[in-house]
Amino acid sequence: xxxxxxxxxxxxxxxxxxxxxxxxxxxxxxxxxxxxxxxxxxxxxxxxxxxxxxxxxxxxxxxxxxxxxxxxxxxxxxxxxxxxxxxxxxxxxxxxxxxxxxxxxxxxxxxxxxxxxxxxxxxxxxxxxxxxxxxxxxxxxxxxxxxxxxxxxxxxxxxxxxxxxxxxxxxxxxxxxxxxxxxxxxxxxxxxxxxxxxxxxxxxxxxxxxxxxxxxxxxxxxxxxxxxxxxxxxxxxxxxxxxxxxxxxxxxxxxxxxxxxxxxxxxxxxxxxxxxxxxxxxxxxxxxxxxxxxxxxxxxxxxxxxxxxxxxxxxxxxxxxxxxxxxxxx
Length: 330
What we know:
Layout: H1 2-28, H2 38-50, E1 56-57, H3 58-65, H4 73-85, E2 90-93, E3 112-115, H5 117-122, E4 131-133, E5 140-142, H6 151-155, E6 157-160, E7 165-168, H7 173-184, E8 200-202, E9 206-207, E10 210-211, E11 213-216, E12 218-223, E13 226-231, H8 238-250, E14 256-261, E15 269-273, H9 279-289, E16 293-296, E17 301-304, E18 307-310, H10 313-329
Antiparallel strand pairs: 1-3, 2-3, 4-5, 6-7, 8-11, 9-10, 11-16, 12-13, 13-15, 14-15, 17-18
């Protein structure tokens, strides 16, 4: 019995390690070189192969990507919408939802996409790309793309693997490129996150891509009885923020008459205050008791040379800069 139990335990240990390794390297954690998860890389490679300058139905792109990605159309569609909404690598046409309100995208048969000019310029170079067989051996796919810019830090990424997770914050495009210039000149750099949704940031506990940050909504007093929220924290949507305000109101933490969401291209949430309550005092309470202020715990875990590791923003940027130099020399 003991020998059979030992064999079974070895089998489980081996299979679990294989599964863990697969989820970390092939699904959830991005590669340091191009900053992409495998599904994102396969979407971009498929768009590159399909590229004729015109828009393609997203349903067709998803179907073509399934030749490289074995995990179903819904995971590909969700990754494509997420990548397109970051605004750098994919041009969009149609309703891709709203990152501010949390509204979902239309069905893939209704919306269209193509590679952006930036993606064509910085992501692809056949002579610098190492290829490997796809999962069924019928096609070739890139191991990583020879990206010319620090895409990992530019876009940010989140992923949950087995026994580890990653949460890389997005950064400002111009700040990243200026920092690369300083690195080439042998100078030290320090970078902080920058969010599409705006907001205010407390980086006193930030540890170069790890640690903890606090993100606040940006509010203004329209008058002493009305508060306007113009920017929201990174991890929230206007709907989740409104829900947290209504919850605080029901709990008696703040006193409001109404809250309305007028968000379209830009965030605008209007809060009308109850009699005897004033904007100046309520703003402090909103930060204290609602999602107008949220803590975020960044975790810069990446895959480098096939091995997961946790590193700093500056280490990633130095690696990307050194790789760019090596690629230019090649």
